[in-house]
Amino acid sequence: MKATYAPGERNERLGSRSNADLRQVLTHERHKQNLGVVRALVARLHKLRMPADYYEFHRELVADIYSADEWRTQCSEIERVLRGGAESDPSWQAVDWRLERIVADRICRQLRSVGDGLAWKVLAYERHLIVALGHNRSDPNLFGKVGFGCELRVLQDTWERDGHFAILHDVTNCLTVGDLTICSEMHAPWVNANSHACNPERWVIAEVKSIRGVCKTRFRGRQLKRAQVAINAVVNNTPLVGDDGVPRSFFRSTKQYKTHLRQVASTLEDAWRTGHAVGQLRSHWVVSARAPVQAWDSGTPWSTYAARDDKALLKAGLNTVRDRFLLTSADALRLAPGRAPFSIYPFRPAICAALICDYLAFVSMLGINALTDALLTAGFTGVQEIRPIDLSQHDRAVVRGIIKTKAMSINNGALAQIVFEAVDLKREAEAMLEYSLRPDTTPAIGVLTLKNERATWR
């Protein structure tokens, strides 16, 4: 007899656990080893240039994730057997299988965060595409997956026979529609791109099926059709009408993408050395970073760090704002598919890996004044703050800029992207105004991107 997990138990965030759990997780030997694995993978990821390098990196990443998924499955099976009270190997009683399962779950997500970075790179950093291909719920597991052998064969044939690189969606947290994406412009080194027959679509979504023992790649089906329509809408810059009849717009602003990530990087480097650091990005915006292991080793009381944070909040004017948002990077790998993964941030691989594995985390505190001031400065004639503030719903609006008869909102998903990517608020507001003043008056919801975002990421 096996017990079952309570709803949401497998997805419980680290921040909601006790300090004792946090210490046990971060000092667990497998978890510490995975930090080194992720650091090495991120260093390689940042240097990928040629399709052959992508193929080899992807092949090794699949193997790493398969091993991690296998261990996670075994931990879960043993934990449920013991919870159910069934007879078991006596040696199992000496192991905290709940802790082993928590660590195994995290390692799988961390490795897939590297896969997210790979996906962003092969999809040319097209945020719109990532959003379009990440709207399904997913909890991928390569171990024991029916058809995984077929997927491996198709990946190999696509490369060796057809001459194209393809990425397996189950090595990512962010790609949840279809089984793989074939990249028509990423050719094997033996292919003559000028004479080679390629699909006219730059990216092709496919499913893999075993039909009477033969592995087949399918490009049809309702889900795949919707995914391809979404890709075409992104590529051709046309609205995408969903099942609800509402047009969703993928708007590309002419405003240059700008961030404060250099300032964030400096704060993170200081925290990585000393255990804690706090920095101000602008008025009403502070970032506080902590490296728990270094902080524990230093013996510095948490009250000392809290006092430093309070001083920075006072200096930034955050003690007098009407409302403020507080978002943490800890255990945030799967919360927003449209947000750039830490694996491609313009930081050292060691810092990227520490963020992915939560050996380093930052809390971003942003006053609503910063958002409203940016919108008004950009040219919006009115601003509406949505109350009560509720950050639990991805699509719920936080603040709305108004000009003439039009309005544009920042919802929770967009807010998370702005905060984690440290996007310049003035530039973001200017892009929002540009969208609001476009000739098309059709009401739409969707995703806004700025010019040349790809230049920011590794």
Tell me about this structure:
By secondary structure, the protein is of the alpha+beta class. It has 2 domains: 9-236, no CATH class; 253-456, no CATH class. It has helices at residues 19-26, 29-47, 51-83, 97-122, 127-132, 148-160, 222-236, 261-274, 292-298, 302-316, 349-356, 368-378, 412-420, 425-436; strands spanning 164-168, 180-187, 203-211, 214-218, 240-241, 247-256, 276-282, 285-290, 324-328, 361-367, 382-385, 397-403, 406-411, 445-451.
Short key terms for the protein model shown above:
single chain, 458 residues, alpha+beta, 2 domains, four-stranded antiparallel sheet, globular
Largest sheet, spatial ordering of strands? 1-2-3-4
* Biggest sheet features: 4 strands, antiparallel
In terms of DSSP E residues, the strand content is 15-25%
Q: Average pLDDT value?
A: 88
Alpha-beta content class: alpha+beta
Radius of gyration using CA atoms only: 23 Å
The SSE string, one letter per element, is HHHHHHEEEEHEEHEEHHEHEHEEEHHE
Count of helix runs: 14
The general outline is globular
Helix content: 40-55%
Number of domains: 2
For the secondary structure, the number of strands is 14
Poorly predicted parts? none
